[in-house]
Amino acid sequence: MQAKSTSSKSPILFALAAFALLAACAGGEAEAAYPDRIIKIVVPFAPGGGTDVVARTLAQEMSKDLGVSVIIENKPGAGTIIGTQAVATSAPDGYTLLMGTFANAVNPSLQAKLPYDAHNDFAAVALVARSFNLVVVNKASPITSITDLIAAAKAEPDKLSYGTYGTGTSAHLAGELFKHMAKVNLTTISYRGAAPAITDLLGGQIQVIFTTVASAASLVESGQLRAIAVTSAERSPAFPKLPTVSEAGVPGYAAEAWYGVYAPAKTPPDIIDRLNKSAAKAVQSEAFKKLGVNEGLVMVAEPPEALDRYFRGEEERWRKVIQDAGIKVE
Length: 330
Known about the structure:
The protein is α/β, with parallel strands linked by helices. The protein contains twelve helices and ten strands.
């Protein structure tokens, strides 16, 4: 009888043990610490550009801190809209992020309709860095300062031209903001990229460009071009002798490019916090310090709410410039 009793209980004991094991496994899976798999940062530009370089450096450094691979997925197209939309519709689990830029703040003003909401579909993670453009002229130009540029533009209205590339880019709108605030009229000449614009500046076909540090720094250093100002709000450590446009003659002027990390809306706050801390640590690395010199970056790594405030300020600033200048995407 005793043997029979033991035998009858064994299936029950086995079932209870199996249930306990499954519960333990399920609990362990539910409590797995974030992150436990690959994180993807979507760059809404083609490989090789400034945003791509910043994102890859960030991914490399964050990977060291987070203990998982952080990879880049380039999804260019439609003025960053394709890549941005891909993140907006991704799961809010911290494994798909967006490298946001200046374009994210101006697209709502340039596009009649976007397939996402620039505010409600994203959660700010970290403002990583700010950058600026250089105001550059030909080395033989009689223009040696912002004051000279304004005087020349007013002396001969419509005869001075500035080269730009990409409707709504920071280089384009930096020039439009200058025209508006300095109350001058420079003829806008559009190019497909920085290289052909610089070629025409070297050849004297145009008189000035507002361009990225990466595209012009080597030519400035070699003396082939002359930089007369930086477009940032403060002087740059990379060009300490160059005045800002604001202090050189257009008070209040500031036109910056920037890089910020976003996650899909409804990403849990603890994941946002973990990513923010990792990004803040990444920008203190030697790799980012070197990048800062080469690209003219000012490292920021501020909390999510700082990125949100900055974004809203940029959106408002450029909306007025775009509307006043009647800029539209063709």
